[in-house]
Amino acid sequence: MKVQRxxxxxxxxxxxxxxxxxxxxxxxxxxxxxEEVSEFEHAFGAYLQCSFVVGVNxxxxxxxxxxxxxxxxxxxxxVTHANTFNATVAAICLAGLRPVLVDxxxxxxxxNTKEVFGTITSQTRVLLPVHLYGKPTPMNELVRESKKRGxxxxxxxxxxxxxxxxxxxxxxxxxxxxxxxxxxxxxxxxGDGGAIATNESKINEELRxxxxxxxSSQNNHVRPGYNTKLDSLQAKVLSWKLPxxxxxxxxxxxxxxxxxxxxxxxxxxFQSWNENEEHVFHLFVIRTDKRDELLNYLQSKxxxxxxxxxxxIHLQPAFSQYGWxxxxxxxxxxxxxxLLCLPMRPNLTVAEIDYVADRVRSFFNxxxxxx
Length: 371
Hints:
- The chain is of the alpha/beta class and 371 residues long.
- Helices cover 37% and strands 15% of the residues.
- The strands form four sheets. It has a seven-stranded mixed β-sheet with strand order 1-9-8-5-4-2-3, sandwiched between helices.
- A hairpin with a 2-residue loop joins strand 6 and strand 7 (168-169).
- Helix 3 (59-68) runs parallel beside helix 4.
- The chain is globular.
């Protein structure tokens, strides 16, 4: 059996009807900031229960434009964590700000919130938690402390479309929430795309100026900006899929539950999962010190397992100027060595789940010794 990570065809119900709509847009020339973009922005804002959504070209641009909209200076610091994807920290650098890292938490695999406040200095202006793998970061203390200290809270929700904490969608706890619609995501475009959520009208206006080359109106450039607009065709794809998102996320949770049941007696560790959250399992990760051997074994058996982030941020050459060193963030380094992503998509069958789980079990029961 082959168990793949992606099945894009299954995400398009009524495909012929959908293609009629796409053909109309192509022939009508509806390509840039058309009504389809506005329709998706309003629909996604209603889904998140926030006032404004601004569509941009990528999740990375969502982060970059969000940080630029806050009118910060080069000496200002942004606190995030060492086990995130490169784009989180790259956006901080591209915005001309200084990244400050904290280590990951052993149980959540997210930002160690206990370490955050020890990193805050007089130059700290932003806390940037990342809802990795679809699990909400514990937000209550971050919200409370950021308000008390006058620090902006910006969420990287690129992997957590639809996730909730205490009934509230992630991406709406801070002043800005950033989303990616890369084809790998739970809400996936047929290409790239991103969006920013906010409840602040002035920031909404600033973001719309930033994404359109700094124009407040045609040919009236009021500041240097970017050319980063959510493509109209991608907006149509996203609007088509959005009504299915909660159902797909529920299927992901059910699959995660089945994986955990089948693997619970093996020497692997799972990302913690709390009752007050709705994890959306963008990725299903297991932790084992035999990660690389297990990966090779599963791939040899047709299981499309994958490693995400094998080199933590502080050891990436792109960020060597900050002087971070090996051993400085030990949990992030351990996770980089030990986390493995098993296939996760909403339409995984029971047979596929059983096959993956049985192969993991076979590996630990001795079949993987040659690996």
